[in-house]
Each structure stands twice: as structure tokens, then as C-alpha cells.
Amino acid sequence: MTCKHFGACGSCSLYTMPYEDQLKKKKEELAKLLEPFYRGETTPFASEDAHYRARAEYKIYHDEEGCHYAMRHLDKKSFVTLGECPMVAKPIEKRMWRLLDLVNGDETLENRLFGVEFLSTTTDEVLVTMLYHRKLDEAWIEKARYLEEELSAKIIGRSRKQKIVLSEEFVTETLCIEGKTYRYRHYEQSFTQPNPKVNEKMIGWAMAQARRYGRGDFCELYAGAGNFTIPLSTLFAHVIATEISKRSIHAALENCRLNGVENITFVRMSSEEFTEALEGKRTFTRLKEVDLDAFDIGTMLVDPPRAGLDEGTRKLIAKFDTIVYISCNPQTLARDLEELCRTHRVEDAALFDQFPYTSHMEAGVVLTKM
């Protein structure tokens, strides 16, 4: 990938390195972090080197010439106005500049617009959220409906205490994992994996580890909208999954219906709450129709936020035979492994390059009880 904004735009900090060198550097850094716990091969899963991001958020900068997309400068002190952005998926790229053309010169669309967010799929669906510092009215709705037709995209308008959905507030993604197709509804401003092709590889890797090392029933913490849960459910008789976000639980249940999956019990609670429930320390009305004792949990998958696992969750998952740990922060993964490797050993490790041209790494390890 080449971009005329390399060296200025803060989105791509590793712009001086060819992509193959970036991947090699990240693999070496991850292997060093994991060295106290694992001396085997760390498998790297590469990204496409351009048009890989299915999510993008831009600030809107206004000057006498109109509106411009802007990103924070590498110096973190200013902003860069963009004339191209080759990291975004092609469905976004083919609409974002046409959107800007239609906004510029139109007072209704341009007035106090301060941000635009894009969410796309591998099948050319795009959802566009336009963010304003003013109340949106019928005139805006009329113009936004024209945008939907012109862009073949779904438009949402947001301002303070206001959200206008013109058609739908989600896109339906299609992923191919181990030769099978899975469909997911991704809702506006909800968490989704940003790199669909690497996401397919990440789910496939997790399935391979669960197939090789999995025992008993399957439990997933931080399940989101079922990104891992639904494909992995095909390997187990019974599955229980937790997620704190009410909206994500709603999407997960929809995604189960989309994929004809009926063996997953989703529970809306944090990992800390679920730990207390499993240990019998607290009772929860949210679990009144769930018989936890009926699950013979032997395999755990965790995909925590950047902060990693809390102490209680580390102690909980250490009780189970197999742990698949997906991490968006290898530093906290290494911290958690100090505790988990007292009872488990790392059998395999992987690097998932969701964010080319940045130093960000995602990792996966599978642990089995010693």
C-alpha cells in the first residue's frame, strides 16, 4: 500500500516498512513477549496490505473550500485533511468521496457536520453515520434520503440526544470459515472486528484449537455478537456465553437465528458477575432460567478488552481443561499468562495482523491443564 499522507496522518505509523517487514517485526515482538511461557512457533496470519478496514471514522474539517475528511497528525498536535485513504475497504472507498461531493455546497447537509463513520461488509453493504452539532430536522431527512439512493448505502444521523435511522441501523456481514458461510448483523456504533479477512483466519484458528484440545461443554466470556461463539458452537453439544452489552446480546440472538444455531445460551452479565455465579457467591435473576449445573464446562474462550482479565476471571478459567485466549493487547496477555501458566501450558500461539501499518498486534494462545 502507498498513500500520499504517509508521514503525516497518524493512522499509519509504520509507513516506512514494507508490509512483509512489518509482519516479521510484529512476529518477533510477540514471540519475545511469549518466550517465558512458550518456545514453539508463533504462526502469523497476514492481512491484505490495502483496503482491509471495514470500519472507519473521520473528523470533518471545515474551511472556505468546504468539508474535508481529517485524521490526527502523527505529532498528535494537529489534523491532516485527506485526499485518499487506501486502508479502507473498497465499499467504503467508492462511497466516501462521493458523499463528500454531495455534502459540500449543500447547507442542510454541511451545516455543523463534525464527523462521519463508515461500517461496511464483504458483500458491499455500507452504513454511514453522520454526526452533527445541531438538531436534525425534516429538511435534513429529505436530503439524507437522497444520499441513501445516490450512495446505495444506509444513512443514520446523530446529534445530541437525537438519532435518526432512515432505513436500517445494521449491515449483514458474510464470513467464510472452514468452507462454511456464516452471517452476522453488525449494528451501528457496536463493536465489530475491523478486518474481515483476518477475522475469518482468527475464527478458523480458534476452531482448529478447540477441535484439537477442546473438552466438555464450551463457555465463552466477552462474546460480543457471537463472532466466535456461533462457529465454535458447531464443535460442542452445549454452549454458554456471556456479554455485558444488552445490544450485543440482542445481535447475538439474531445471529443465532440467521445461522440456524440453537445450542447456545447467552447470558447478559460481566465476566466478574459470571465468576461469582459459577462459584455460588451470588445469585442473579438473569440466571433464573439457566441451570449452570447442567453445563459440564471444559473449554473456555476469552476475548477480553485491552485491560485483559481481572484477577477473579483468571482464577475462574484456570479451573478448566482448555483455554483459548484471544488478545488485542499482548502486554496484558503476557501478564495474564504469568498466572495461567501455573496450572496450564501454552500449546500453540498465533499473531493476527488486524491493523497493518501500525504497531498494534492481536494474538491468540491455547492452553491446556497440566
TrEMBL record:
Binding site for S-adenosyl-L-methionine: 193, 222, 243, 303
CDD domains for this protein: AdoMet_MTases
Gene3D superfamilies assigned: 2.40.50.1070, Vaccinia Virus protein VP39 (3.40.50.150)
Keywords: Methyltransferase, S-adenosyl-L-methionine, Transferase, tRNA processing
Residues at the catalytic site: 328
Sections of the chain in a coiled coil: none
Domain of life: Bacteria
InterPro entries: MeTrfase_TrmA_AS (IPR030390), MeTrfase_TrmA_CS (IPR030391), SAM-dependent_MTases_sf (IPR029063), TrmA_MeTrfase (IPR011869), U5_MeTrfase_fam (IPR010280)
NCBIfam families noted in UniProt: trmA_only
Family: Belongs to the class I-like SAM-binding methyltransferase superfamily. RNA M5U methyltransferase family.
Entry protein name: tRNA/tmRNA (Uracil-C(5))-methyltransferase
Organism whose genome encodes this protein: Hydrogenimonas cancrithermarum
